[in-house]
Specification:
This protein has 3 helices and no strands. The chain is rod-shaped and about 80 Å long.
Length: 71
C-alpha cells in the first residue's frame, strides 16, 4: 500500500502533477467533443446546401455565365 502512495505522491510533486493532468484530460475531452459537434453540424449544413443546389450555377448553365466553355 505504501508503494502505491509513493507512486501517487510522485516524490512530493503529486499535488502539482495530478491537477495538471486532470486539467489536460478535461481540456482534451472538451476539444474532442466540440470538434465532433462542429463536424456534424458542418456535414448537416453541407448536405442541406447540396440538396438545395446552387441557383447561380444552374442559372449560368454548364458553359459558365458568358456562354463560353470553361477550360
Amino acid at each position: 500500500m505504501d508503494a502505491i502512495k509513493e507512486i501517487l505522491d510522485l516524490g512530493g510533486y503529486g499535488a502539482y502533477v495530478w491537477p495538471a493532468f486532470a486539467t489536460w484530460a478535461a481540456v482534451m475531452t472538451w476539444m474532442a467533443v466540440s470538434t465532433l459537434r462542429r463536424l456534424r453540424a458542418s456535414e448537416d449544413t453541407l448536405e442541406k446546401l447540396q440538396a438545395a443546389g446552387n441557383p447561380r450555377r444552374r442559372a449560368a448553365g454548364p458553359d459558365g455565365p458568358q456562354g463560353t466553355a470553361r477550360p
